[in-house]
Amino acid sequence: MVRIPHGVFRMGSDAADGFPGDGEGPVREVELSAFLIEAFAVSNDRFEAFVESTGYVTEAERFGWSYVFADHVHPVAVSDVIEGAVAGAPWWRAVRGACWRHPAGRGSTVTGIGNHPVVHVSYHDAAALAAWAGGRLPTEAEWEYAARGGLDQARYPWGNELMQDGAHRANIWQGTFPSHNTVADGFMTTAPVDAFPPNGFGLYNTAGNVWEWTSDWFSPDWHRPARPETRIDPHGPPSGVAKVTKGGSFLCHASYCNRYRVAARTQTTPDSSLSHCGFRLAADA
Q1: Pairing status of strand 277-278 against strand 211-217
Q2: pLDDT in tens, 119-160
Q3: CA 114 – CA 140 distance, rounded (Å)
Q4: For a surface tag, which of 38, 79, 215, 230 has the fewest beta carbons within 10 Å of its beta carbon?
């Protein structure tokens, strides 16, 4: 784990291309105590070790299905697609048998991608591994502070330009979403957890690759009043229906979901599992 020192940072964004309904703003000063956070998202190999040690069964496995991006469904699993597209996001398919062991459905495996982030894990699954490992999930504020790598209000963990010196710095969608991905960054789906250079704190892939769970309940406005509980070691509202996820994923594109910006956020119900959502661990310092 990387030790992030006590500090004050400017959280959130008032960017014109942000998503006001997500509650990215206002930009506000937040003070955090020192904490620990892992440099990498939890990998398939690490999740497998957890499962082998505990016998844990994920929610996707118990439900019998999970969401896979339409073009990524394994040919063998095409017949396992549950009829009906997702309203507002027709590129998703509910696929019987899709889970962390079979990320594209029946016929796919994690063989050869052990160092890629585990996916098809719900918030509850992530919290279970965290408890087993003696850690926890980061708060949204901790995640964002660490993801910024010491930069103040930069759009990305490395600065304000999406590409740096002509090089890709994150695993996101290039081309035309959702019909054509040029794979200019080298990855059609997930990338290894140590792909691309780390940020200033030594964290990898805090933009793109997979969305990451935080411990906070989602609210678009809970943090707007400048109360101490929203500015000093904030933990989000006391209850809710969805958790905050951060960082964007390999499916994010500027034309649809430019939430690979470090201040961006979205909401995901805690029992949901998808082929582009994972997590990393944190702990008290």
Answers
A1: parallel
A2: 999 999 999 999 999 999 999 999 999 999 999 999 999 999
A3: 27
A4: 79
Contact 100, 47 (CB under 8 A): yes
Beta carbons within 10 angstroms of residue 175's beta carbon: 13
Segments of the chain scoring below 50 in pLDDT: none
Q: What is the pTM for the complete model shown?
A: 0.97
pLDDT per residue over 60-76, tens digit each?
A: 999 999 999 999 999 99
- Rounded to 5°, angle at Cα 264 from 102 and 147: 80
Residue ranges of domains in the chain, CATH in brackets = 2-276 (3.90.1580.10)
Q: Which residues contact 100 (CB under 8 A, 6 or more apart)?
A: 44, 47, 58, 60, 61, 110, 118, 119, 120, 121
Q: How many Cα atoms within 13 Å fall on the side-chain side of residue 213?
A: 33
The answer to whether 216 and 178 are in contact (CB under 8 A) is no
Torsion of CA 47, 252, 264, 262, to 10 degrees: 70
Owner of token pair 């016929």: 107
